[in-house]
Amino acid sequence: MPRHIVLLRGINIVKRNRIAMPALRAALEAARFGDVKTYVQSGNVVLTSTASPDRVASRVHALIKKEFGLDIAVVVRSHVQFEQVVRRNPLGSVAKDPKRHLVTFLGSSLPAPIKKKLREVAGPSERFAVHDREIYSWHPEGIGRSPLWERLGGKSLGVIATSRNWSTVTTLLAMSEEPSDR
Prior knowledge:
This protein is an alpha+beta fold and 182 residues long.
């Protein structure tokens, strides 16, 4: 059965949008998603479904709204799509610290005017590359004071988006390659 990586935006940050991962796994399994696994508390799920990634995103969004009362942005990529994200990595030759190398996953394509604004705010040592529905970014000085990260991590992109550092991205890919529990 096809595997998908489900990325939830902005959950379990301080006291906002709290969802316990065991409760989320149980709700997804009850909704007939298979082989559900979570990674850390920030809304990373690997599961199986015959539905398309967009359909999985829609179903998970509705489930979270119904079961947990939260309107959370959900972005989904198939295992194959996620594999391509890792393989493509246009910043691999410059991004040396996986905690400062991020991928922002978009729900749809980034509007051209937003790409221009990102170029304008990127710091002198920062790099980013937009490819289809992903933005790869490298923040060698960290993300704490980065205007580029502020745009990527905020809601100003004009599309649904959520970011993960390179360590999380590669871990999720590895989880999606593991044999099924069933």
